[in-house]
Every structure is written in structure tokens, then in C-alpha cells.
Design the sequence.
């Protein structure tokens, strides 16, 4: 499993950025064709190989595959099986996507591009996979209605157009998933619609040990949580409350979590993330990818981050750890 570490590579000074899609069924991608692969020095136009990638050789795959994008993600129509309105601005769609797609979308951090049937690509929006039901070939999506694109989706009753799955919805999740052991203690903190990726993460991390959830239902609905999560391990909280910091501190000290997943706005990632790193420095930290994501393929540039070295990295492809995101992106203001 790969995760992103931004570093210079020895003598060559070549930029090394790991990629969420490297070695997956979607690799090599569009970036390989134009000589912009994030991993492979040969596919960056160099005449030598000096990558740190330990998986299948991306260059070899590209040449053997006739210099084409492997398995490009394409739009497809999915039937809406059920639509439930929890509030006038909060809706859950259950979609029939086929077994293979439902299985692929089960990985925590997965998200899809979603638009109405017949809508132009301007309406595409990233939406997290909230739950998968592989036996029934279904996925569940929760959508908070805000403005044009989400309002347009709310009008859909029969079909939606999907593209995906994309994997980089949560920074730090790859490192966390690659940890071995069945007795891991995981804490998930989610606010608002952050609970959607939180439900999928809880589904997976329950198989690796215990999961506690701190949920702030601000702008969403308790009924949705009750429909998707078992009561036992959930505590309802308000992150804005004065004493929340103290509550969290004592929970972290008492339970000594191995993993903490923060699915909140950047404001809370900064404030809570620093506390978590201080109290549990050995714990793996994962945080929501709150960048503006429009293509998910490293092409359009809407998620670009300019580094202090003058490089541009695309946050839809590059998977940071939670700690890297905090140290190099949020606090240091792009001095990666
Ligand atoms: C990886 C990821 C997963 C997401 N998962 C969900 C989800 O499960 N459920 C859900 O309701 N929402 C989710 N979102 C947010 C959702 O994409 C936006 O709320 C939606 O695009 C808003 O569109 P709009 O036209 O209704 O509102 P707008 O007025 O266009 O935007 C409202 C807010 O959403 C932000 N936004 C708009 N477009 C994007 C974009 N392309 N990428 C990121 N933020 C954007 C705006 O900056 C603004 O803060 C996710 C976003 C990302 C990046
Ligand atoms: S979303 Fe288009 S480059 Fe990242």
C-alpha cells in the first residue's frame, strides 16, 4: 500500500510524490501519457529509473499496455433504488451499481463523481461512499443540499450518472489501512456530512478491532446516524462547545487509540489534530480531504497546492498522512 511522502530523492533532486492510484487498476493514468507520472522517473521524461516505488513497475505496465491509460474511469448510469429525505436539505440515495463496483467502492476514503442523468459535466460533484452492500450490489450516498449542483441532484428520482471510485477522500487512510493486527483501537470524529465517509470507515475498522465515534450532528440528522450506526459506541458531541477539548483529551488518554480519523472542516483539523498528535504521538492520524476536487485525475488543477520548492502537487492524487497535512499544508501554509 502506498502513501504520500513529499521528499527530494538524493542526488537527482527529483520530486518524489506517492500517489493514491499507483499500482492500482487505474495505473498508469493520464499523467503517464504526458510525462507527468507522480512516481516514475522514466514517465517523467528522465532516462534513468530512481523511484522508491516497491510495487509493479509502472513504466513496464505503461509500455506493455501500449502507452494507454489503464482502465480509465468512465461515466455510467445507476438506477436509484431508494431515496430518503432526512431533512429538506439532507437526502440519502441507494443506488444499484453492480457487485464489482460496490466491492471496489468499499475501501474507506472512496468517493465518486455524481451528476443527474443527462446533466452536463459541469454538474459533476465529489460525493463520498457512505455504505456499500456488496451482496445486494448497492451503495449508499448521503448528500447535503447546498447550491446549484446538489439542488440539481435532488431532482433525480430514477437514475444518476456516476464515475469512480476515486480513493483519496481521506488523507492518511492508506497508511492506516496497511497496519496489521486485529486489536486496533480506532476513534472516528465526524462533524456534519463528514459522517458519510465516517460510516464507511467504521464498517472497515470494526473488522480490525474496536471503533468509537464522536459525532457532531450539526446540519445533519440524528435519524441518519441511527439508521446506519449501532448505538453502542457513539457519543453525540458539539465540537464548538467550550469543554469539548477537555472531553477529547481525557478520552484519548484513557483509551490510547491506535488510529484517529478526523472528518471535519480544516478549522477543526488544525485545532483537534494538533491536540491528538501531542497526546498520542504514535497514533496514525487520517483527515478528510477538503480540497476542491473537480476531475479527481490530476488534470484540471482545482486541487493544486504550490509548494515552497516551486512544485505543484495535485491533492486529488497525492495521499498525505494526517500529520503531513497538518505540518506541511495547514500550519506551514504550503511550505511543503
Ligand atoms: C472528497 C469529497 C467528498 C465529499 N463527500 C460529500 C458527501 O458525501 N456528501 C455531501 O453532501 N458533500 C460531499 N462533498 C462536498 C460536495 O462535493 C459539495 O458540497 C458540493 O460540490 C457542493 O455543490 P453545490 O453546487 O451544491 O454548492 P456550491 O455553492 O458550489 O458549494 C458549496 C460548498 O461546497 C464546496 N464545493 C463546491 N464544489 C466543490 C468540489 N468540487 N469539491 C469540494 N468542495 C466543493 C464549496 O467550496 C462550498 O464550500 C465532498 C467533497 C469532497 C472533496
Ligand atoms: S481535482 Fe482536478 S487535478 Fe485534482
Sequence:
Amino acid at each position: 500500500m502506498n502513501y504520500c511522502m513529499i521528499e527530494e530523492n538524493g542526488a537527482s533532486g527529483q520530486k518524489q510524490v506517492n500517489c493514491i492510484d499507483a499500482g492500482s487498476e487505474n495505473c498508469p493514468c493520464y499523467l503517464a501519457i504526458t510525462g507527468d507520472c507522480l512516481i516514475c522517473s522514466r514517465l517523467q521524461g528522465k532516462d534513468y529509473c530512481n523511484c522508491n516505488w516497491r510495487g509493479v513497475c509502472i513504466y513496464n505496465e505503461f509500455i506493455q499496455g501500449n502507452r494507454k491509460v489503464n482502465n480509465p474511469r468512465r461515466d455510467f448510469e445507476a438506477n436509484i433504488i431508494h431515496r430518503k429525505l432526512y431533512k429538506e436539505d439532507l437526502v440519502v440515495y441507494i443506488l444499484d451499481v453492480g457487485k464489482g463496483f460496490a466491492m471496489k467502492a468499499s475501501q474507506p476514503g472512496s468517493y465518486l463523481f455524481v451528476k443527474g442523468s443527462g446533466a452536463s459535466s459541469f454538474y459533476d460533484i465529489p460525493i463520498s461512499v457512505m455504505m456499500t452492500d456488496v451482496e445486494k450490489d448497492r451503495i449508499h450516498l448521503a448528500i447535503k443540499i447546498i447550491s446549484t449542483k446538489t439542488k440539481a441532484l435532488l431532482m433525480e428520482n430514477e437514475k444518476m450518472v456516476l464515475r469512480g471510485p476515486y480513493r483519496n477522500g481521506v488523507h492518511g487512510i492508506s497508511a492506516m489501512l496497511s497496519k496489521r493486527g486485529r486489536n486496533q483501537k480506532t476513534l472516528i470524529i465526524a462533524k456534519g456530512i463528514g459522517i458519510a465517509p465516517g460510516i464507511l470507515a467504521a464498517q472497515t475498522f470494526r473488522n480490525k478491532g474496536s471503533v468509537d465515534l464522536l459525532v457532531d450532528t450539526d446540519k445533519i440528522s440524528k435519524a441518519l446516524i441511527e439508521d446506519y450506526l449501532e448505538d453502542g459506541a457513539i457519543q453525540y458531541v458539539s465540537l464548538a462547545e467550550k469543554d469539548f477539548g477537555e472531553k477529547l483529551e481525557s478520552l484519548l488518554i484513557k483509551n490510547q487509540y491506535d488510529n484517529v480519523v478526523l472528518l471535519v472542516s480544516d478549522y477543526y483539523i488544525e485545532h483537534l489534530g494538533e491536540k491528538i498528535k501531542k497526546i498520542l504521538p504514535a497514533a496514525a492520524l487520517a483527515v478528510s480531504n477538503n480540497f476542491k476536487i473537480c476531475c479527481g485525475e490530476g488534470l484540471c488543477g482545482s486541487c493544486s497546492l504550490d509548494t515552497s520548492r516551486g512544485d505543484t502537487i495535485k491533492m486529488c492524487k497525492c495521499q498525505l498522512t494526517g500529520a503531513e497535512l497538518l505540518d506541511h499544508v495547514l500550519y506551514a501554509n504550503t511550505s511543503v
